[in-house]
User: Which sequence fits this backbone?
């Protein structure tokens, strides 16, 4: 890529827009496949997306992406002009999806600053061959193009408020027009060299004079594809006006006299810039002005409703809000204030807490994004796997509008993909098997999201063969994964065995399963963000896996406890209850493990001072406090010296040198308390599953 386009902001914008467009394109293609029909809107949308990607990638000099996009654009340009009724081709869908995958790989290379060396020539040839086959079937209508006709236009483009980098977007417009114009004159002329040109474009619009053999409709069609275009004014001008614009350009400015843009009929002799031919033609120019609004903007005074903000800025804002929460706690809980009667201070502190809470809620809401994009990706996975496994599956998506923190979405995408793959590969039977069992030929997978308290539950459900308990237990015995008597295991506990490392019931290694890894990684990823997994299944009825994940990782409600001179924080969502135990309720098994009886049920006891090696004077069970915590339907009782109270805490990761040089068990992070001391946040999943 040329040095001109090595600007990080430009590159980020290109990657963001290209990725968004590819996601849209993939959904359009999959939707067409479901309906077995390309509607006129679908064809126009595919053409528009590829035209935009072609222009931006060409501007950024990613020639491989540009060439491939151009080939698809040409193909759909032909289809769009022919307007075939009820046309659909699965081969064409396969080809487009393959092209999408190619471009995605190239974009990933760009993100990783790797060499963008993908060769699209084979795909380009396949597209050209497909287009040639379409034309051979009699759909070809020669394009009406009179190279002897020369037209002159003035275009003024106004970009959406807040789209940023208007000069770069203007350059992209010029770059695309150069391929169909004999000569271009534009103002501001120094759009790349002069950063102040951005202000001129925002104030006056981007003005272009075009000399071309294309019609007004073709130029308009080209220009309305511009990304973030708010308004377009396209006017037919005469040769004199175009010549004056050239003169003004040479004088360092471009000013068009209103008198030179007029209605006229004349005979003109035009000499083409590229071929040197001269032809006498009769032309009729009529002054017209086209104002076109794009998207939801219906007037020049329309307010900008949305702006794009860097995720890094949102992360920094979230960090600052976290620091503000800590600073507030340091002020309000300052030990120097204990015992003092400060009515006005407490009134002001209450108001400060209210404002801080509102700011925190707003910042959190800004970071929240719907699960729709993540869920829609699963359509492609189901589609590809069905083709390779010769299965028929319908994917149903419910609650895709449910929102979670952007960082959470990044952490659950891979686990969700794995669950969907497992559902198709292991869960859903082939059409023949389903018919033999009295089921419909088409299997069904449902992905559902819903808010449950302060959590979001994501449910992946299928109506397939279900989990085989006997097979799971057999595999667990073979791999020595059973730690308790299997007769005492509930169905839920048996199903949870598939989450253990190295567990796989697949009898053969395939592209999708049988490598002995997978569900354990899913479990670790979900537990790493404070989530949990529950599994329900019924033989020949299906399986349901529920992921319970927090809305955010940044700030949590926590209960602070003391052990010796150390302070720990337990996420309140994991706490079932707390109570002061009596000695007679404690039972010790032959192996020395402590259990406590609570309402007729026995639960293991975890003494934190022993687990972490902390000196404390509170060792008698009746002198301390028991906090019952829960994870994945398993409960344990944590023994601590005393409760310190509940508060919102800002989650901080452990320092890198601690992670690197010392294995940390039972700790997921840390936080700063109001008195300036540090509290370690307990890793509930680790404590529960290792007790």
Assistant:
């Amino acid at each position: 890529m040329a040095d001109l386009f090595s600007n990080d902001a430009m590159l980020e914008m290109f990657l963001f827009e290209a990725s968004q467009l590819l996601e849209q394109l993939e959904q359009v293609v999959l939707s067409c496949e479901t309906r077995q029909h390309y509607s006129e809107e679908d064809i126009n949308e595919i053409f528009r997306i590829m035209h935009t990607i072609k222009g931006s990638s060409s501007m950024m000099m990613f020639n491989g992406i540009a060439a491939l996009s151009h080939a698809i654009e040409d193909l759909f340009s032909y289809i769009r002009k022919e307007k075939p009724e009820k046309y659909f081709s699965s081969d064409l869908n396969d080809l487009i999806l393959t092209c999408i995958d190619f471009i995605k790989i190239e974009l990933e290379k760009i993100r990783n600053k790797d060499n963008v060396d993908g060769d699209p020539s084979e795909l380009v040839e396949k597209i050209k061959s497909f287009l040639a086959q379409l034309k051979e079937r009699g759909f070809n209508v020669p394009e009406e193009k009179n190279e002897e006709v020369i037209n002159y236009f003035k275009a003024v483009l106004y970009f959406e408020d807040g789209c940023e980098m208007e000069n770069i977007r203007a350059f992209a417009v010029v770059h695309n027009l150069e391929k169909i114009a004999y000569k271009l004159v534009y103002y501001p002329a120094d759009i790349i060299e002069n950063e102040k040109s951005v202000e001129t474009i925002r104030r006056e619009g981007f003005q272009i004079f075009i000399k071309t053999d294309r019609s007004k409709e073709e130029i308009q069609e080209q220009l309305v594809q511009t990304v973030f275009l708010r308004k377009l004014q396209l006017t037919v001008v005469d040769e004199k006006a175009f010549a004056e614009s050239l003169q003004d350009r040479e004088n360092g400015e471009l000013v068009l006299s209103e008198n030179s843009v007029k209605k006229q009929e004349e005979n003109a002799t035009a000499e083409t810039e590229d071929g040197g031919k001269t032809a006498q033609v009769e032309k009729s120019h009529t002054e017209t002005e086209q104002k076109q609004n794009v998207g939801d903007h219906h007037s020049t005074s329309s307010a900008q409703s949305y702006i794009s903000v860097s995720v890094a800025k949102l992360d920094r804002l979230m960090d600052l809000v976290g620091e503000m929460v800590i600073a507030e706690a340091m002020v309000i809980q300052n030990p120097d204030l204990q015992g003092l009667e400060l009515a006005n201070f407490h009134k002001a502190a209450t108001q400060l807490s209210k404002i801080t809470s509102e700011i925190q809620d707003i910042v959190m809401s800004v970071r929240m994004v719907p699960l729709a994009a993540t869920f829609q990706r699963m359509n492609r996975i189901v589609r590809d796997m069905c083709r390779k496994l010769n299965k028929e599956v319908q994917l149903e998506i419910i609650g895709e509008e449910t929102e979670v923190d952007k960082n959470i979405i990044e952490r659950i995408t891979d686990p969700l993909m794995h669950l969907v793959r497992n559902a198709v590969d292991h869960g859903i039977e082939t059409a023949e098997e389903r018919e033999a069992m009295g089921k419909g030929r088409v299997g069904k997978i449902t992905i559902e999201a819903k808010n449950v308290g302060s959590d979001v539950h994501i449910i992946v459900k299928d109506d397939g063969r279900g989990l085989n308990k006997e097979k799971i237990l057999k595999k667990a015995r073979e791999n020595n994964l059973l730690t308790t008597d299997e007769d005492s295991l509930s169905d839920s506990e048996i199903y949870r065995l598939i989450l253990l490392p190295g567990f796989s019931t697949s009898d053969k290694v395939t592209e999708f399963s049988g490598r002995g890894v997978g569900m354990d990684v899913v479990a670790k990823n979900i537990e790493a963000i404070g989530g949990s997994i529950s599994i329900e299944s019924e033989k020949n009825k299906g399986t349901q896996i529920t992921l319970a994940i927090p809305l955010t990782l940044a700030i949590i409600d926590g209960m602070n406890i003391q052990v010796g001179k150390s302070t720990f924080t337990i996420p309140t969502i994991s706490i079932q209850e707390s109570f002061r135990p009596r000695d007679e309720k404690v039972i010790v098994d032959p192996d020395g493990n402590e259990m406590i009886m609570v309402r007729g049920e026995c639960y293991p006891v975890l003494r934190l001072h022993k687990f972490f090696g902390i000196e404390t004077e509170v060792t008698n069970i009746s002198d301390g406090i028991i906090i019952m915590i829960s994870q994945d339907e398993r409960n344990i009782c944590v023994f601590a010296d005393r409760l310190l109270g509940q508060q919102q805490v800002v989650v901080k990761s452990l320092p890198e040198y601690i992670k690197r040089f010392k294995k940390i068990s039972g700790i997921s992070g840390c936080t700063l308390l109001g008195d300036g001391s540090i509290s370690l946040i307990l890793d509930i999943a680790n404590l529960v599953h290792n007790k």
The chain has a mean pLDDT of 80. The chain is about 40% helix and 25% strand. Residues 352 and 588 are 50 Å apart (CA to CA). The radius of gyration is 33 Å.
